Amino acid sequence: MKWMKPLLPIAFLSTILMGCWDKLELEEQAYTVVLGLDKAGDGLVKVTFQIANPQVGSSDTGSAPNEPSSDTISFTTPDILSAKEMANAVVTRKISFAHLRTLVVCQEFAKDALFHRILSTSMRDPEMRREVHLIVSKENASEFIHKNKPKLETRPHKYFAFMQERWRDTGLVPYSTLNRYFTRLTEDTLFLSILATTEKNNQKPKKNEDDYLAGNFPQESGDPTQLIGSAVFKGGRMIGMLTGEETRYVLLLRHRSLAHSFISTLPDPVDDRYQVSVRMIKSGNTKVKVDVTKEPAAIQVTVPLRLQLLSIPSFVNYALDTQKQELLTESIQQELNKDMMELVKKCQREFKGDPFLWNLSARHEFWTREQFEAYDWSKQFPKADVKIQFDMKLESFGKQIDSPQVEVGAGSE
């Protein structure tokens, strides 16, 4: 055993030094926080890198007071990984995807079959994580990234992180990560991605404040980027779009959804000149029952909702009148049922796919996977007989039971 004693210091030093051979300092790396993909033709893709400056917005800002928060460069190459390698012909630091959280693809390229090939092969890179959020822009992704100049966020990645988290509060955009994209590539389901643009085509304001696509929401100032609505994918290709309102309804009709509440305006049944503002809270999982023994298949959907009445511009006293409460509840049910059924028919006729994930409930009706695959949900869903009902309860009228009323034109002389 004496011969081992000289080797002990070497073994001890090796445990301390091991793993440091490929260490890179912070200033030696270029962190890509946003990646853009555009169609370039001839089987090529235009890849745009938005590289963050780690010194801007940090405690080290004093050493780089005049440097920009990020740098944006574009290359046309056969795929993403070759573009990552070629970027070092311009960027002196090593390109890293370790902090990549946002992938922007232009609408034109998302409709091309090449998009899925480029995206799926890039996942071979260990730095391409499935938690990356997928955004579809109406304009070129490079143009979108260049024009996106948020006024309140110094670091570019923070803007997208905060905006993407707002889907939990509003439901105006879906939760769209690469992981969800790859798990919903089959013909049975539709994948919904965030829809965004910096191009404005403001429409006339609507009574339904959420019934817009990105770029159509009437906006007069502020950040140029709008994120509202969703891009619909089937089999790895974009086939259509849904408005913010339709995106909300998709989330409500799913058995389980991460967005549980949002505020919406609906017609006042007592005075149709006004809208009432209601917070809709999904109080449990949506019940989906699929009867595959019938032809066509029968789908019964029950959505549990709790309503909180927030604003009543008509001054109708709903809080103390139970008959008017029943009238309001029935009116909301009819309005939601009408809009949701229109959405279901749109998905059946136009998209011929299921964004509601009802295929998961249909699977439980079969003993084996082979039986379900033979049933072919992609062909059964477009002709299915769908019925929607609500387990609805009006539970709150705000802090103030009644609103102070005055006659129009009244006042001191």
From TrEMBL:
Residues 229-398 form the Spore germination GerAC-like C-terminal domain. PROSITE patterns: PROKAR_LIPOPROTEIN. Residues 202-221 are annotated as: Disordered. Keywords: Germination, Lipoprotein, Membrane, Palmitate, Signal. It is found in: Membrane. Residues 22-195 form the Spore germination protein N-terminal domain. Its main location: membrane. It is a lipid-anchor. Pfam families: Spore_GerAC (PF05504), Spore_GerAC_N (PF25198). InterPro entries: GerAC_N (IPR057336), Spore_GerAC-like (IPR008844), Spore_GerAC-like_C (IPR046953), Spore_GerAC_C_sf (IPR038501). It comes from the Bacteria. Belongs to the GerABKC lipoprotein family. This is Ger(X)C family spore germination protein. It comes from Paenibacillus chartarius.
